[in-house]
């Protein structure tokens, strides 16, 4: 099914006037080599995250300038740093500082760690590769002048739900997407992977607080921010993930936050696997 979706998305790109150069049926051999050379621990997530298909769908190429939203521990960063190469640039973009205390679980130590993440991003990249790639970390409201209008791809992989969660209270999503638009080149694009809530579910609880967003809502928020949808893919779909009205995404692997911490419940969640995810590609509206 992923192959069919991939082929359909290619046709969509052609109709939209987007170059299919990096959207071929055969992924870039350099990307294949980078993905296959990682540790066994990193590769255990590939069956759920599909990094080869995802980065090919997003048309990421060596030498590009790429901004990765919320790089966290660096699972995708390790791939990007080695794949973009010595001619590439990799930015790590974190939430604005004022957002971290908004999380109910945030401790002083947690907040301190998150505030320091941007300054530590270049060192993290350097620990993944010695190829000389340029790297810098910043937040959505501290984009440096040299990054404005220079980015080929912004990758927002499981980074939208919290931005949307605090939009009503603090405008976090609209501010972030405005920054994303400002970073991109005129022909730059945004790749989105996001936990997906069924369209049939009520809008209440679909704001990201459960980790899920509706695909229609994500498309609408990008259109409102001055983007247009180029293509969508089902490469990260999981039909087994059918959340109830109050289910959170973190009940699933790898978090497995089940209510009674029972082995039976954990086994049931592991049988489902990681979340159902939309995969979308946007560009600046013309």
Q: What are the segments in which pLDDT stays under 50 over at least 5 consecutive residues?
A: 1-24
Strand content: 15-25%
Look at the structure and give the CATH class. Alpha Beta
The number of domains: 1
Give the structural class.
alpha/beta
Which CATH-level-2 architecture? 3-Layer(aba) Sandwich
Secondary structure: helix percent: 25-40%
Question: CATH topology, which one?
Answer: Rossmann fold
Alpha-carbon distance between the two ends: 32 Å
Explain the overall architecture.
There is one protein chain. With 286 residues, the protein is α/β, with parallel strands linked by helices. The protein has one domain: Vaccinia Virus protein VP39 (Rossmann fold). The chain is 39% helix and 19% strand. The chain is built from twelve helices and eight strands. Strands 1, 2, 3, 4, 5, 6, 7 and 8 form an eight-stranded mixed β-sheet that branches. The chain is globular, with a radius of gyration of 18 Å. Residues 1-24 have low confidence and may be disordered.
Keywords:
alpha/beta, Rossmann fold, eight-stranded mixed β-sheet, 12 helices, 286 residues, globular
Can you describe this structure in just a few lines?
By secondary structure, the chain is of the alpha/beta class. It is built from 12 helices and 8 strands. The chain has helices at residues 2-16, 29-36, 40-43, 46-49, 51-57, 75-84, 108-128, 160-165, 167-170, 172-183, 215-224, 263-272; strands at residues 65-69, 89-94, 134-139, 151-157, 184-197, 213-214, 227-233, 277-284.
